[in-house]
Queue: 2 jobs
Job 1
Amino acid sequence: MTEWWHELPLTALDAQQWEALCDGCARCCLHKLEDVDTGEVYYTGVRCRHLDETACRCGDYANRSVLVPHCLDLRAQDIAALRWLPATCAYRLRAEGRPLPEWHHLVSGDRETVHTAGMSIRGRAVSDEFVHPDGYDEHIIHWVE
Ligand code: SF4
Ligand code: SF4
């Protein structure tokens, strides 16, 4: 069987394949802080309020860019230039020509393995409804790189 996710470049994926490539970790829906001096990006455990954390899916995917103006349509971006994407992000891995990990659902055949492998944010984040932006630095985490 052809493993299109390993054979095709991102630019050759159709819409269905593009969506299927997402591992469902929801790490990209965590707020990030950037050190203005070094450019280093720090992940926080504060998540977007529109995320369904149990499912690790956006609660309103079709309107996400309207609800959250800085929420990007990744397909319109140069993935390789998005340094803030987690190192485990399937789009980043493929943009770098690297294989998907064994816990990715396309490899494992199971959408739950991203969670059982501890790679998603399920049960680990707090909604930004409950944290003032000035306090995000108190929620810096180190389990996302
Ligand atoms: S970090 Fe990448 S793979 Fe994970 S949910 Fe976000 S877009 Fe999908
Ligand atoms: S709007 Fe949806 S996709 Fe965008 S950060 Fe929030 S939960 Fe994630």
Note: The chain has a mean pLDDT of 95.
Job 2
Amino acid sequence: MTRVVLITGASSGLGAEIAREVARRGLASAMVLVARRGDRLDALAEELKASASSLEVLTVAADLAEPVACARVAAEALARFGGVDVLVNNAGLGLPTLFADAPPADLERQLAVNLQAPILLTRALVDSLIARRGTVINIGSAITCVANSALGVYGATKAGLAYWNDAIRRELAGDGVTVCLVEPGPIATDFSDAFRKLTPDGARPHPVVETPSGWMTADVGDVARRIVGLIERPRRRLSVLRRLVWPFRAVGALARAFPALGDWFVTRAFRVDRALGRAERLD
Ligand SMILES: NC(=O)c1ccc[n+]([C@@H]2O[C@H](COP(=O)([O-])OP(=O)(O)OC[C@H]3O[C@@H](n4cnc5c(N)ncnc54)[C@H](OP(=O)(O)O)[C@@H]3O)[C@@H](O)[C@H]2O)c1
């Protein structure tokens, strides 16, 4: 096995679990792990090498919100391993805030990490992916099914990612590159903790910010297993948990077919207290 797998956002949550699952299944000879917290990446690299002694791991501490970061990450990966076979664009963040209250810097950061970085990193690696008939896995979100208050910019980055994903899937198919979109519903990771921190004491939590009940929340290990399965059995789109994503899709389709009813229903179902938008910043 001589496959090189690059995973962004590998310092926690889903990205770290994807890396563990790739190592567990012996699907890579080398891995490139990317995120800002280099200490966590190094600890994960040690863990992976201990479980698979022949595995080589390169960690790259990088802030993907910075414009030059993607080119640097790609250059380091290519210099060390000569190419990349699987690129998992997983790094992402959500900063739920009513749009009129959102600090412009937060909007920029979400746009840069969630949308610009996957595009630029894939562009920087596309020649290698074509040469190796590789795979791109983009981590989107089920949030794109229904446009929500306080999550408009996060959802817009994921909707943009989905559009670009479908476009390059069609464009690169003739070059032998496989492109897959993953649409997760809620998963128990630091991601939702970060959402919760923004809810001020006493404020009514956003239904998406509030800890979703168990039946709605996917286990991060299960989601990682499904995602890693795409390396050997690719699919255009993977929805996890299906039982959650499909009802959301149905609501979204109804809202598009009957816009007035859609606005009335979604506005009430996902009402957000103004206080959420004024929450003191904690990150
Ligand atoms: N959890 C959910 O409910 C859920 C639902 C749908 C979709 N998703 C998507 O799943 C993906 C993974 O999220 P998760 O749940 O695993 O959340 P997480 O545990 O918070 O992980 C996010 C990862 O992104 C990295 N990251 C954030 N900002 C970065 C930056 N500026 N530069 C480089 N890396 C950065 C973080 O690393 P550092 O902080 O070390 O940089 C971390 O490794 C995201 O794209 C998210 O939108 C999650």
Note: Residues 9-15, 35-37, 63-65, 90-93, 113, 139, 141, 184, 186-187, 189-192 surround NAP (CB under 6 Å).
